[in-house]
Design goal:
The chain is mainly beta. It has 3 helices and 11 strands, in the order H-H-E-H-E-E-E-E-E-E-E-E-E-E. The chain has one domain: Lipocalin, CATH 2.40.128. The longest helix is centred in the first third of the chain and has 7 residues. The chain is globular, with a radius of gyration of 17 Å.
Length: 209
Amino acid sequence: MRDQGWSPYEAVLGDELWSLHPRLRTYFSVIADGCEGVGEGVFATVGTPRRWLHPFIRALAPSDVVFPVWEKNVPFTVINSAVVVNGKPAVAAERRFHLAGGDRVMRDLIVRTSAGLVDVLGRRRRIRVQLETQVIEGELRMRSRRVELRIASWHIRLFGPLAPGVELTERFSHTDGRQHVTVEIRVPLLGKVYEYEGSFAYEIRSGDR
């Protein structure tokens, strides 16, 4: 593992980072001081078509993690910022979904731990996902190994037939020259319960906006 001065992705991937497509390396490499990574694109789908799940999503999930919707062709913006957490480099991300009912924001924080990458979700950081990373044919694929819910000062592992599993793929398409992202959440008893999938253009910009 690398030390400070590297992004958490670089710290965990090591030499595998160089197996990613060059555009993806830009996305997952360290963001220079005074800059931020900005992506703008369109999600082909957001949410779940199983409308009976919407009340459960609304009641159980933090409002800045997943949304009780099913929409297509949703414009979005992602802003990645380099931060330091407990003396270690991390990436704070804000994804703004321009939904029909108004903008909604998903927030998460990627940190590196002794167990690998961990994605801490929501402004209040109530959900923590340990991620297994793999580079395959220039793509980065991540799969959850453990999902925890924070209650007060305790992190409770979710397990059993209703425990969520997360899969994420980041790839570059030569067909349209854009970065593509696919995220799926599944539970054993129900199958796929949430998704978003789309493409975007990404660049490093000065943080003085």
